[in-house]
Design a protein that fits this description.
The chain has 545 residues and is α/β, with parallel strands linked by helices. It has 22 helices and 13 strands. Strands 1-2-13-12-10-11 form a six-stranded mixed sheet, sandwiched between helices. Strands 6-5-7-8-9 form a five-stranded parallel sheet, sandwiched between helices. The protein has a two-stranded antiparallel ribbon with strand order 3-4. A hairpin with a 2-residue loop joins strand 3 and strand 4.
Length: 545
């Protein structure tokens, strides 16, 4: 039996929202702004250095109240407490979900199975700090005595996307004398291109893998070891000076040949896509230094506290999550565009894809019943203004509803000429155009030839959020990431799904393991796939031979 109210058609809060939607589904944002001239000042949350303007959503104040009722009927407050308390809310893996402990201050205490995890977290942070200081000061020497100048992070999914995104986002604060490369794809091109101009004697490889069994990462790590040893004369002693590991699996790390003294641990209560602020962030700390890394953790923690303690109608992540539920489940949007107007955030949409879609791409409720409503929308995006000259056409005039999150900063990290004024003008212009569009009358009044009028009309009424901060700093990046982490949890609670497992990635992994020997077998092994897969395998075998 599915007892969760939100996934039950009879949940009164859900029903009230459905009825409410019937009332306002023909109302245009133009009318909403005309009726409520102050909504641009009032449907805004300003907290902990971030602003969320959600006034350009197809919502009344009453909608907000109904969404808050929905959150309450789904026990969002209790579910937040359960996460912060360390309850095993990842039920299918019987695990606590405690990324919030990764940024808890030293003085905090979070007890899991009778053990306070906060001192463990800080012990790892201290070890990372000592290591990063040695590398950054040139005290950590390679096998030949050279200082380390290149860092190669090998990992995939959460062990790559967070590190790459944070490196790019915080490049302004990074030590430019160090070169950072990120290898994730099992395609050999990724490794070769990342290392081709690097000197192995000056290179440190971080093998980042929670499980230390992931096919892509282990394949790349083995190639890295070969590359390094062949560049340094083949003495396996060199591995200790050039390889460190970030993992929860000490046994596999030492089997690989990395001394566990050079391993930075984390715990099974940290999900891969929630791990960029754990030791998985070692490359981030190497780039920006321990102080700035701690500043980033401070940002995460401030958002955690805000999420835990603030009433939902003034709660940034709760509202962001509830607005997306409104747009997806009631307005019928299938997707959500993430549009950062900051070049440093160019990998932020890719990072959010894993965070949001691996978390909420689920078809059954916590108790295994098929959901009765759609769940995780498709997240995607590119930095503005580039996207404007690519896919925005479809957002403005296509037939699909694509809610947008615009992310912008009041201050540029590179205030040259009038670039920032123009950048900021563009973000405002886009959300204004999406909301209000241009009517037939306006197009005609511009003297447009009759036959072009329908082509030049903008319907408008496209919802968007605008998220603002003063400028991109480590603290703000932590807040932004935690904002989306908790928005994802808010969605998951409403949809009554498990945000923290990812069984959907398993089948493909298992099939790939089975197909590798079929592609490489010296004798023609019998194939028992479907006719398409069998024929494609034969083509590959023919080409290979
Ligand atoms: O894609 C599945 C997944 O398990 C992700 O959740 C995870 O971030 C990634 O693989 C990498 O896993 P690991 O860190 O164990 O190598």
């Amino acid at each position: 039996m599915n007892s969760h109210p939100s996934s039950h058609p009879q949940n009164p809060a859900w029903t009230a929202l459905t009825e409410h939607h019937h009332k306002l589904c023909h109302v245009h944002l133009r009318e909403l702004f005309a009726e409520e001239p102050l909504r641009g000042e009032e449907m805004v949350i300003d907290a902990i250095g971030l602003t969320l303007d959600y006034s350009k959503n197809r919502m009344y104040r009453e909608t907000v109240a109904l969404l808050v009722q929905l959150a309450e009927s789904c026990h969002l407050r209790a579910r937040i407490e359960a996460m912060f308390r360390g309850d095993r809310i990842n039920t299918t893996e019987n695990r606590s979900v405690l990324h919030i402990a990764l940024r808890a201050p030293r003085t905090a205490s979070i007890v899991v199975d009778g053990v306070d995890v906060v001192p463990q977290v800080h012990a790892v942070l201290d070890k990372m700090t000592a290591f990063c200081n040695r590398v950054r000061r040139g005290e950590w020497k390679g096998y030949t005595g050279n200082r380390i100048r290149n860092i190669v992070n090998i990992g995939i999914g959460g062990s790559d996307l967070g590190p790459v995104m944070a490196y790019e986002a915080l490049k302004h604060y990074s030590d430019r004398s160090l070169v950072f490369r990120f290898v994730s794809n099992i395609d050999g091109t990724d490794f070769v291109e990342a290392t081709r101009d690097l000197d192995p004697s000056e290179t440190l490889v971080i093998v980042s893998s929670k499980t230390f069994t992931t096919q892509e990462t282990m394949t790349n790590a083995l190639s890295a070891r070969e590359w390094l040893l062949s560049g340094l004369g083949g003495d396996s002693e060199a591995v200790a000076k050039h390889f460190v590991a970030v993992s929860t699996n000490a046994e596999k790390v030492s089997q690989f040949g990395i001394d566990t003294a050079n391993m930075f641990g984390f715990w099974d209560w940290v999900g891969g896509r929630y791990s960029m602020d754990s030791a998985i962030g070692l490359s981030t700390m190497l780039a920006i230094g321990p102080e700035a890394f701690l500043e980033m953790l401070g940002g995460f923690h401030a958002m955690d506290e805000h999420f835990r303690t603030t009433p939902f109608d003034r709660n940034l992540p709760a509202m962001l999550g509830l607005i997306s539920v409104w747009n997806c489940n009631f307005l019928g949007a299938h997707t959500l565009a993430i549009l950062p107007y900051d070049q440093y955030l160019k990998r932020f949409p890719a990072y959010l894809q894993q965070l949001t879609m691996e978390s909420n791409g689920k078809q059954v409720t916590l108790d295994g019943q098929r959901v009765s409503h759609s769940t995780g929308p498709i997240y995607w995006g590119e930095p503005g203004t580039n996207g404007q000259h690519s896919f925005y056409q479809l957002i403005h005039q296509g037939t699909r509803l694509i809610p947008c999150d615009f992310i912008a900063f009041l201050e540029s990290l590179h205030p040259i000429g009038d670039h920032h004024d123009k950048l900021f003008a563009n973000v405002l212009a886009q959300s204004e155009a999406l909301a209000f569009g241009k009517t037939t009358e306006q197009v005609i009044a511009e003297g447009t030839p009759q036959e072009l009028v329908p082509h030049r009309v903008f319907e408008g009424n496209r919802p968007s959020n605008t998220i603002l901060a003063q400028k991109l700093t480590p603290d703000i990046l932590g807040k932004l990431v935690a904002l989306y982490e908790h928005a994802v949890y808010t969605q998951g609670v409403i949809w009554n799904i498990n945000c923290f497992d990812q069984w959907g990635v398993e089948l493909g992994k298992a099939l790939a393991q089975r197909i590798v020997p079929e592609l490489t077998a010296s004798s023609e092994a019998p194939l028992q796939h479907d006719s398409s897969t069998n024929a494609l395998i034969r083509r590959y075998r023919d080409a290979r031979s």
